[in-house]
Amino acid sequence: MHSSPKLQLALQLLGLAVCAGAAIAAAAMPWWSARYTEQWTIEFLYTLALAQGWNLLAGYGGLLSVGQQAFIGVGGYLIVAIAVMGGLNPFVVVPIAGVACTVLAIPMAALLFRLRGPNFAVGTWVVAEVLRLVISNIDAVGGGSGTSITDALIGIPVWWRMSTTLWIALALGAGGTLIVYALLRSRLGLALTAVRDSEAAAASLGVSVTRVKWIVYLAAACWAGMTGALIFITKLRVAPDAAFSIDWMSTTFFVVVIGGIGTIEGPIIGTLVFFVLRGLLADYGSWYLVALGVIAIVFVLFIPKGVAGLLQDLTGASMFPVQRRAPR
Amino acid sequence: MSDWINTIVQGVLTGGLYALLAAGLSLSFGVMRIINIAHGDFAVLAAFIAIALAQWLGLNPAEALLLTLPLMAAVGYVLQRYILNRALGADVMRPLLVTFGFSIIIQNLLLEGFSATPRSLYAGNFGTSSVTLNAQIAIGYLPLTMMIVAVAILAGMQMLFSRTMLGRAFRAASDDPEVVRLMGVDNRHVYALAMALAMVMVGVAGVFLVLQSNTSPTDGPQNLLYAFESVIIGGLGSLWGTLAGGVILGVAQAIGAKFDPGWGTLAGHLCFLAVLAFRPNGLFPKTKDR
């Protein structure tokens, strides 16, 4: 369905206004909100950051990673290595984790890009497991039972700790969304979607498929690493099983699938739905996770474009349009 | 010296279990081009079905196994025919996400039904006795049986693929689904049969798994990874390569665990990565598509 340009423009402006308003309100939270709401917002934003990273990777880049927890875990353990043991401010470790994970992703990509499609997916999981097992065997960082990171936070007043965490989460979640949006509207974004839709066709039109995949993989690794470092600042404790857990991917998949793969608003909507469902159902323990699994399967099979896709079909317009019109 | 030989022998025999798991994974990848992320979880499901049957009906492990297999075949058929077939297509992400969903569902249903406590199936004397070759080297009846069963099943698969109509339909559906449909073969049925067969192998593997060691509801993913690594080490599309891959993985794990109990799984993963680095098509490749 084609939308009228006016509706499209109105929706786009509305989307920008709502998001800008929400971002400003969130940034000012330390001055107006309860600490509980602030914590909830931090969690919302880092979940969104992970979802946007994976959305870029899989939804646009066609790189089906099941192993982004590798970078989340490394980010968490860099807090231990640099902030707890090295004495540096833990918030400074966040960008360092981004750089470190980008560097780590280079040999990983070199190895894993030999596997295609679903084999690449399982391969990324193996690498994450390797990192988990290696760190479980290092006694200096607590081995299998992990270690506390409260020592790194002791000198920082609680207000500053919460506020800085929130602002970094905002930069990762909302900033990440903006970066992905800008990226997709650029030439690289066009190359990305082309590669996702058909590698052969993209290559024949002069897109360097390999280059595009490398850029996306390294960018997603960087983002997951920074997010991981931030997550474990909020958790105060890091253990290999939690840091390198596949559960990070389950949440991410759920969020992106429900919201809509390959759209910008999808992960935002999906994260909201996820938190609402968790609030409603978390008391049911294992049944809650069974329900999430069933919902995700139903979406993949019957509503593959997610809630964002449904809205787009209904209105014919999108808040964050990244499609291009064919030249007349 | 002979304790090293013992380690390697145990590793080789564990390889039989991995080869069984891997053959199922390889079959579904070969025919449907999907990787079932819940593959290991289905093995654990089969294990717990066998435990439940043994307990409720007072069956011995062999009887429980024989009852479990048709159930697993039915699960595989229904799963593929009515759910996974809908997710097939150019986009490999959809089957991956659906099977990931199944992985979570199976783990949590098993946790709800059986709690997180690891369980095993007791095979009596058979489970503990062994052929003693000398003071250090003893080959357990159970691992030995597992290896023999694995080899027999792989040989049966080989026959099925090369000699039967069904095997021909599998290969044809894998090579060109469009043309196969034109020839009057119902793809959806062929795929469902392939998944049923894969689940039978998974069922055998799952029951041996739980006979051999304690298994908990969340052990599925690690078994998926072992199966996957065996397939890639052996080389895609090669049944005997898969057996070799399983054996190599089993030996790598056994050697790693001999140095330090915490290194077994890690050594297996590193062996897989080494193969990926130096022989990206596996050791005995038949096809190049990966």
Structure description:
The complex is a heterodimer of chains A (328) and B (290). Chain A has 328 residues and is mainly α. Helix content of chain A is 74%, strand content 1%. Chain A contains 15 helices and two strands. The mean pLDDT of chain A is 90. The longest helix of chain B is centred in the first third of the chain and has 31 residues, at 2-32. Chain B is globular, with a radius of gyration of 19 Å. Chain B is built from twelve helices and two strands; from the N terminus they run H-H-H-H-H-E-E-H-H-H-H-H-H-H. The mean pLDDT of chain B is 90. Chain B has a two-stranded antiparallel sheet with strand order 1-2. Chain B is mainly α and 290 residues long. At the A-B interface, helix 6, helix 12 and helix 14 of A face helix 3, helix 4, helix 10 and helix 12 of B.
Kindly list the characteristics that best describe this protein:
A: 328 residues; mainly alpha; 15 helices; globular; B: mainly alpha; ABC transporter involved in vitamin B12 uptake, BtuC; two-stranded antiparallel sheet
Short description:
The complex is a heterodimer of chains A (328) and B (290). With 328 residues, chain A is mainly α.
SSE topology sketch:
The complex is a heterodimer of chains A (328) and B (290).
Chain A: H1 5-27, H2 29-32, H3 35-60, H4 69-84, H5 90-112, H6 117-136, E1 147-148, H7 158-184, H8 187-197, H9 199-204, H10 209-235, E2 237-238, H11 240-243, H12 247-259, H13 265-281, H14 286-302, H15 306-315
Antiparallel strand pairs in A: 1-2
Chain B: H1 2-32, H2 39-57, H3 61-87, H4 93-114, H5 124-128, E1 130-132, E2 138-140, H6 141-163, H7 165-175, H8 177-182, H9 187-212, H10 220-234, H11 239-259, H12 264-278
Antiparallel strand pairs in B: 1-2
